[in-house]
Amino acid sequence: MITFFSNIPIFKDEKNLDIQTFLQLSKMICDFFGLCDSKFSLLRNDVEGNIKKVSRASTNLHVNTLYDLLANEINRDDSSGSIGLLWLKRTFQFLICFLHYFAQSKNNELIRDMIIRAYDKTLTRYHNKLMRHAFRFVLLIVPKRSVFIRKLGLEQDNCELLFVLLIVPKRSVFIRKLGLEQDNCELLVLREAGQFAVSVEAHVQTLNRMLVLFGLEDPLIS
């Protein structure tokens, strides 16, 4: 079974993070928010805007790595690419924090409680009162757990699910198989969500060190 987290873009050089792979990874944030609810367009549009800033800066500066982009913009009037990287990094920290909570959660825990807790631990410190209110309003609209799991798992592999459903001959067997499929899906989604968080976190920490080096991020923010 394929889940949302099954295909992670891989950096060829983990010490010199290339921009294109990072932007592919960032696109996954947009896709993730897209699975949550249409009202998450506020968050998705913000991420897409930052992706465009980084992409435009890399093209204009003719650079291929995150470090080179930051180094080239440090003394320029236009630092939009660096600011885009800063906010993408912060959004990744929010998503990673949520996924850690999610991967370790029990089936009676609410998605909205975990996502609000992650927001309070990460992004809220950067937002003013109005922005915090707007974000909290949107975050509370996340789908319930069973729907969320299905979007991250079964709907990513709908051909396999359709095949399973088509070969079920009886109602009782259908319900039993569908229940087992959902249980297996949840286990796989939780495991791969945790693996995704750990894998991406290492790259985000590398970017964070660069941002601190160039004076764009507080050194106390890990």
Automatic annotation (TrEMBL):
Molecular function terms, GO-annotated: ceramide 1-phosphate binding; ceramide 1-phosphate transfer activity
Keyword Transport: yes
InterPro entries: GLTP_sf, Glycolipid_transfer_prot_dom
Entries under Pfam families matching the protein: GLTP
Glycolipid transfer protein domain mapped to chain residues: 18-153
CC annotations in GO: cytosol; membrane
Keyword tags: Transport
Descriptive protein name: Glycolipid transfer protein domain-containing protein
Provenance organism: Schistosoma bovis
